[in-house]
Structures are given as structure tokens and as C-alpha cells.
Design brief:
Elements lengths: L1 H24 L11 H17 L7
Length: 60
């Protein structure tokens, strides 16, 4: 159960990182800010990928 907390933390952190870098990358667009739908989709996909990659291995 301890692994699930780390998986959740890493997945949320990766999603927030994608949103952060997606928003700060658009600031050079004349001051127009905000989160686009594509950035949100990429954040969700990144979080799911991290969740899947950090799954526990088979029990031995």
C-alpha cells in the first residue's frame, strides 16, 4: 500500500509539471495566458503514463 501513495504523488507531480511548462511556454504570446485543452490532455496522459510505469512488479 505504501507504493500506491508514491505512485499517486509522482503521477500528480508529473501532471502539474506538464501544466506548468505548458502555461509558461505560452507567455511569450503577447500576454495571453491560460491552459489550453491540449495542455490538459498532455498532463492527463503524462500522469497516466507515470502511474502505469510505476506499477509494482509481480509478487515473488
Amino acid at each position: 500500500m505504501k507504493d500506491r501513495g508514491f505512485r499517486t504523488f509522482a503521477a500528480v507531480l508529473s501532471g502539474l509539471a506538464v501544466i506548468y511548462f505548458g502555461v509558461t511556454g505560452h507567455r511569450s504570446n503577447g500576454g495571453q495566458g491560460g491552459i489550453s485543452g491540449g495542455v490538459v490532455l498532455l498532463a492527463v496522459l503524462a500522469a497516466l503514463l507515470v502511474w502505469w510505469l510505476l506499477r509494482p512488479g509481480p509478487a515473488k
